[in-house]
Design a protein that fits this description.
Layout lengths: L10 E4 L3 H12 L4 E4 L3 H8 L10 H11 L2 E3 L3 H7 L2 E4 L14 H14 L6 E5 L7 H14 L6 E5 L9 H6 L4 E5 L2 H11 L6 E4 L1 H32 L3 H9 L20 H14 L5 H25 L6 E5 L15 H10 L3 E5 L4 H8 L10 E3 L3 H5 L4 E4 L4 H4 L3 H6 L4 E4 L6 H6 L3 E4 L8 H8 L3
Parallel strand pairs: 1-2, 1-4, 2-3, 4-5, 5-6, 7-8, 9-10, 9-12, 10-11, 12-13, 13-14
Antiparallel strand pairs: 6-7
Helix pairs in contact: 1-3, 4-5, 5-6, 9-11, 9-12, 11-12
Length: 465
């Protein structure tokens, strides 16, 4: 039993991005004192005022509540965080390199800064790697860096792995009510501290080594990516057979050995995790002499699904040159403003490259998309217009493409249909009921909804109303 066992563990969060902020607020909501720090002053300032920089259901209210309660506070100096927190969670990005490996430079910089601050305090400190890192990183990279920069020995400082399993769109719920907590430790003191920190969550704790915990994270994401890619491949087959993929996957998911989640076909997976993590997992396995063929196949299938999606658009619309296309949904999925690896990016690039005039809209992700779109690169930017309203996006459109199924897009009206030159919508998520849409003057053709599409229906959709 540690001397601090009688009081709540004090938590430090280094990096207030999606994951770091959600993790810190969850600890605060469970009654633990939390200190947050981010290298970007504008992020620190906003969070300290109770203003979230991110769109996430329930996040703004949770942040305001925890800041007002005093359980969650932000400091401007990393030294102050390390002085006040016993367990310091590293929640910094691990972006992908062109090779597929992760870039550890942000993590190593944060580790070095935290370790130097630890060297200035006398009491025990635990450095917890929350960032997603390939198996072996905590032990082979973070631990030596902590010891070297802090001047400490393993008797007074520990490291651990504690991977996150937060899904954007449901991040707050996932953080507050985890279905399991995975920790990887090298000593009893670190394990005891983490178990006390997570006790208020009343979730099962799975204890492994750091490498084991890291392997759990990558294995889970690779398996989920496999499920998505499998459903996408079945969707292609369903179109050939005239079968609706959702009905097939619903029956498949009822098998308790398989389960229903992540069997929803679409234009391919995006977001900050799947592609980056599976690529890094495959690269790390290759380094160890183990060809991870299933992970590599999931990545290939995802690329092929993007090509299939564009072929689907061309099949229905015909030539894209000179057509006005309304692209609905720029985030990688509804419920978030995150556009990292969003399928909207390659869709827009291909549409513009083939001569279409693209008008794009998203309820919350227009500005994040603009930053990516306007970044240096060979894009025909003049052919894409980011619109602030759905009405402007639809006006004069020859076709609309539903990329992210935001609730407002699903409440279609006859007025929206009338704004379009040809009221045709290609539903990449099969979110709109085609029969209900027909009643308000819109023809809906869904990816994986039972093609091939009849020539008569395509002809009807292409005719101006």
């Amino acid at each position: 039993m540690t001397r601090s066992a009688g009081r709540a563990p004090r938590v430090g969060i280094v990096g207030l991005g999606y994951m770091g902020l959600g993790t810190g607020l969850a600890f605060a909501a469970r009654g633990l004192p939390v200190i947050g720090y981010d290298a970007k002053p504008e992020i620190r300032s906003a969070v300290a005022r109770g203003v979230t920089p991110y769109h996430e259901k329930g996040l703004a209210a949770l942040l305001r509540t925890q800041v007002r309660s005093g359980r969650f506070r932000v400091v401007d100096r990393l030294d102050d965080l390390v002085a006040g927190a016993e367990g310091i969670f590293l929640c910094v990005p691990t972006p992908p390199r062109p090779s597929g490996r992760i870039d550890l430079r942000p993590l190593r910089r944060a580790t070095a800064e935290v370790a130097r601050a630890i060297g200035a305090v006398t009491r025990y400190r635990l450095v917890v790697v929350k960032s997603t890192v390939v198996p072996g990183t905590t032990e082979a990279v973070v631990l030596p860096d902590v010891l070297r920069h802090s001047g400490r020995t393993p008797r007074t400082v520990s490291v651990a792995s504690n991977p996150e399993f937060l899904a954007e769109g449901t991040m707050v719920h996932d953080a507050l009510y985890p279905d399991r907590v995975v920790i990887g430790t090298l000593d009893h003191r670190a394990q005891e501290w983490l178990e006390r920190a997570y006790r208020p969550f009343r979730a099962p704790v799975v204890s492994l080594t750091p490498s084991g915990a890291e392997l759990v994270k990558y294995s889970a994401n690779a398996f989920l990516a496999l499920k998505v890619s499998f459903a996408n491949e079945v969707a292609r087959l369903a179109d050939r057979l005239g079968v609706h993929v959702d009905r097939v996957m619903d029956a498949v998911g009822r098998d308790p050995r398989i389960g229903p989640r992540f069997l929803r076909a679409g234009p391919g997976f995006g977001g900050s995790c799947f592609e980056k993590d599976v690529s890094a997992f495959v690269a790390r396995a290759r380094e160890l002499g183990v060809p991870l063929r299933t992970g590599a196949a999931a990545l290939r299938a995802n690329e092929e699904q993007m090509a299939y999606t564009l072929d689907f658009v061309r099949t229905v619309v015909g030539t894209l040159a000179g057509k006005r296309v309304a692209l609905l949904g720029l985030a990688f999925k509804a419920g978030t403003d995150d556009v990292r690896e969003s399928r909207a990016i390659p869709i827009a690039e291909r549409l513009v490259a083939e001569g279409a005039e693209v008008r794009a809209h998203d309820p919350v992700a227009v500005e994040p998309f603009r930053r990516i779109w306007m970044a240096p690169g060979p894009r025909a930017r003049g052919r894409l217009k980011l619109c602030s309203s759905l009405e402007e996006t639809l006006t004069g459109a020859d076709v609309a493409i539903l990329q992210a199924d935001w609730p407002d897009y699903l409440r279609w009206t006859r007025a929206r249909s009338r704004r379009m030159r040809r009221p045709l919508l290609l539903d990449l998520r099969r979110a709109l009921d085609p029969q209900a849409a027909e009643r308000v003057g819109l023809t809906v053709i869904g990816l994986g909804a039972g093609g091939p599409v009849s020539p008569a229906r395509i002809a009807r959709a292409r005719r101006a109303r």
